[in-house]
Design a protein that fits this description.
Structural class: mainly alpha
Strand order of the largest sheet: 2-1-3-5-4
Strand content: under 5%
Radius of gyration: 26 Å
Number of strands: 5
Mean pLDDT: 90
Largest sheet: 5 strands, mixed
Number of domains: 2
Order of helices and strands: HHHHHHHHHHHHHHHHHHEHEHEHEEH
Number of helices: 22
Distance between the termini: 86 Å
Length: 494
Amino acid sequence: MVDQKERYGRDIGLFLVLALAYRIGFFLAMPRVIAVDAIRYAETAQQLGAGDFPGLDIRIPMLYPAICALVHGFVGDLELACRLVSLMASALLVAPVYVLARALHGLRAARIAALVVSIWPWLADFGSRVAPESLYVLLWFSSLWAFARSIRHGGWWLLAAPASFFLLHLCRPEGTFLLLAAPLGGLILCARTKNHSTRRLVPYILISGVLLAGYACAIWAVSGDVTIAPRVPSVGAGAQFLYDRGLLVLRSLATLMNEQLPVMLGVVLLLFAGAGFFARGERVRDGRLESFVLFFAVAQLCLAAASSYAHPRYIMPLIVCVLLWSARGIDLVSGQARGLAHGRLLGRLPVAAVVAFMGLAAAGAVAHERLAPVPQTPREYKIAGLWMKRNLEPGLVMVRKPQIGYYADMPTVGPADGVGISETVALARKCGARYLVIDERYTARMIPGLAPLLDPKNAPAALELIKADLSPYPTARVVVYRIIGEKESAADGN
C-alpha cells in the first residue's frame, strides 16, 4: 500500500459532494420512465413493504428491493424511492474507487479516478434508474477493498469482507459466484507473504458459510426450496446450458470485449488505460493488488458472457476497473508533460480532455432527451398510464409494453406476436382483458398487424375508442380502446 500517511476523508468528502451534485442535476435533467425489468424490482419492494413474504418471487435478488422498501417508508412515491437508492449508491461509488486506486497507484491516480467516477454520465444515468446496477457496482468495489484489507491487516475487516460479499450475493446473481470465488482471489494476496495471511481466509470461509446457510433457511421458509441462489442453475443444468448455447456465449463474450467495452469507455479513457497498464513509471504500483483486482474483473466478464446477454450494464464493474488503469495512465502522461516547455499547461491537458469528453457525452444525452422531436425515453407511456389511472375503472390491460399498466396501476397481458386485429381481440376476450392499448413506438413496429389501430377508423366493432391519442409526440401515438365482450357485442347486434 502507498500514501498511507495522507488523510482520506477530505478527498472522499469533496468528491462525494461533486458526485452527488452531478447526479442530482442529471436526475432532474433526464425525466425517466420505469423500464420493463425494473417493474419486477418495484413490485418486489412493494411486497416487502407490505409484508407479503409468501408472495415473493425468490428469483429476484432481494437487497435492492429491500432497501427501496425502507426508503419508501420515508418517501411516498415508490418509484422515486427506488431512484433515490440508485442515486445514493452511484454517488457513494467514489469512496471505494478512491481508496482502491490510491492503494494501487497513488494519490494523484486516486483523485483522477474519483473525479471521472463523479462526472461519468453513464454512471449518473444508471444512478437515476430503478435498477440494482449502481448498488451492485458499489458493493463490488467495497467487497474487493474489504477483502484485501482483511488479508493484509486482519482486525474488523475479517468481518467486513464476508459481510460485504454476502450483500453482493443478495444484489445480483453474479455476486454468488464472486462470493464463492473470493478465497481463490485471496490466494493472490497471500502468495509469498511471511505473515501467515493465508490463515485469514478461514474466517471469511466460515462466516460466509454461516451467512449462506441462514439465507438458505430463509428461502426455504418462504418458498420451500433449498437453495442459495434461486436464479443460478445447478452445476448439471449450467453445464448443459453452456453445451447447448456455447456458441452464443462466445459471441456474447466477443461483443462485450470488442463493442461494449470500447464504446462505454470511449477512445480517451481506452488510450490512457493502455498507457496505465503497460507503461513503467517512477511511482509505486501494487502489482499483487492489481492481479487481485484483475482476477475479479475477468470473473465478472466471464459471468456476463455466460448470461449470453451482451449488455454493458453486466460489465459495469469491469468498465470501472479499467478506469483504475486509465487514471494511472493520465497521471503518467501528465507527469511527462509537466517536464516539457509550457509543462504547467500541458500537464493539465489529459485531465481536461477527459472532463471535456464526459461533458460532451452528458450534453449530448440531455440534448437528445430534451430537444429531439421524440425523446429516447418513452415518456408517453407514463402519461398514458397516469391518465388511465385517473379516468378509467381498473381492469386487465392488453398492451405490448407493461409500463403503461404499471403507471395505470392495472395488471397487463401482452398480445401475441405476428397476429392481426381479429386474433388479438379474440385473445383479449379469452384473457378477460378490459382495455387494449396500441402504442406507435413499439407495438406498431413489433406487431405490424396491429398498426392500423393507431387510426380509430380501422377499429372493428369489438373495440370501442376511449382516447384517440394520449401522447404529446406526433410520431409516438398511444391509442386506448375498450374491449367489448362477446355477450355485449351480441346484445348490441340484436
